[in-house]
Specification:
Rossmann fold
């Protein structure tokens, strides 16, 4: 569960489109994982310049503080609806990917993990970076499209389609189907067979997204 934080529904500059829906679906997904005793990990994006200086060309506020996910601003808390329990792992990250500079790879390797079910925000940024690193490290990814969110509907749908085109070894489904899989039953999911199969245009983005 990636960056499902108060910032996404509170900070005007970083509101995720349809965040209430994303949060509701993420909560359902989390409940299914917990009830079926799957390992759960939460990632939270926190920029703290005292420990991780600004990256080259990174924008800052006039006072020199981070423009997003500022640890001192009070908006980086994971939303109560999907708050971690005491026995669930919380990963604090200072970059887009939940793997970069964190213990996530080792945590998953220790658990002999094959598949990751991923949800969260923003789709074209932290979700995309996490998905790509997961594949790089040899994990299969099931991306739950309606439990992810972005700055707009169009941004989200195109980000999912772009990920789908290179989701080697993985798949895409919605919350209902992901919960079915977590419950041990079968569900139809979209799987990548040939590279770049979704040559989408402005006219068919939503249609192809809905078919995933």
């Amino acid at each position: 569960m990636v960056d499902i934080q108060e910032e996404q529904r509170t900070d005007p500059d970083y509101l995720a489109d349809g965040f209430d829906r994303v949060l509701s679906n993420a909560s359902k997904l989390l409940a299914a994982a917990r009830s079926n005793e799957f390992q759960v990990a939460h990632a939270a994006y926190i920029r703290d310049f005292s420990t991780e200086p600004p990256r080259p060309f990174e924008a800052t506020r006039p006072d020199g503080s981070p423009t997003f996910s500022d640890g001192a601003a009070g908006l980086t808390a994971i939303c109560d609806e999907v708050a971690p329990t005491s026995d669930e792992t919380v990963i604090t990250k200072s970059d887009a990917s939940a793997f970069l500079g964190t213990s996530l790879k080792q945590l998953l390797a220790d658990g002999s993990t094959e598949w990751l079910i991923i949800c969260g925000v923003w789709t074209e940024a932290c979700i995309a970076a996490t998905v790509r690193d997961a594949i790089l490290h040899g994990f299969r990814v099931m991306l739950v499209k309606d439990a992810c969110g972005n700055g707009s509907k169009a941004m989200h749908e195109t980000a999912v389609l772009n990920l789908a085109n290179r989701l080697y070894g993985g798949g895409i489904c919605d919350t209902e189907r992901a919960a079915t899989l977590l419950g041990g039953d079968k569900a139809n999911v979209w799987r990548l067979v040939d590279p770049v199969p979704l040559r989408f245009t402005q006219d068919n983005i939503t249609q192809l997204y809905n078919e995933l």
